[in-house]
Amino acid sequence: MNQSCYAGLHESGLFDTHYEPGSIGADLALRGRIEAELAGLGEARQRCFGYAAYGAIVAGLKRDFAIAQRQPWTDIWHWPVERADEIINYLQGRHAETLGHAAGRRRSA
């Protein structure tokens, strides 16, 4: 008897990913905070530099956290919760750096 290739998937959705307990992805609030930091950084860089910088931000994140280019940045969801502060601090640092560039540009204008 042939079974559907989707047999046995849980009810919440066809393409949902299961994250192990103790991973960043398993903590929805933590994931939301990281996503908000990433979005805030993207908006700040767009205001400062005048272009959509999301791709550059993701490329930098992947480079700085040694995520293979072929892998999505969301692989961090599989990382242990203990690394979340490292990611958040990184994004906040990049945001502060962006704001510093903007302030420097205003002073020199």
Write the layout of secondary structure elements.
Blueprint lengths: L27 H22 L4 H11 L19 H25 L1
Helix pairs in contact: 1-3
Spans of at least 5 consecutive residues whose pLDDT stays below 50 are: 1-15
Q: Order of helices and strands, N to C?
A: HHH
Strand content: under 5%
Overall form: globular
The number of distinct β-strands equals 0
Main sheet properties: none
Number of helices: 3
Overall pLDDT confidence:
81
Question: End-to-end span in angstroms?
Answer: 73 Å
Radius of gyration: 18 Å
Structural class call reads mainly alpha
Helical amount? 40-55%
What labels describe this entry?
53% helix
What does this structure look like?
With 109 residues, this protein is mostly helical. The protein is 53% helix and 0% strand. Helix 1 runs parallel beside helix 3. The longest helix is centred in the C-terminal third of the chain and has 25 residues. The radius of gyration is 18 Å and the shape is globular. The N terminus is likely disordered.
Brief summary of the model shown:
By secondary structure, the chain is mainly alpha-helical. It is built from 3 helices and no strands.
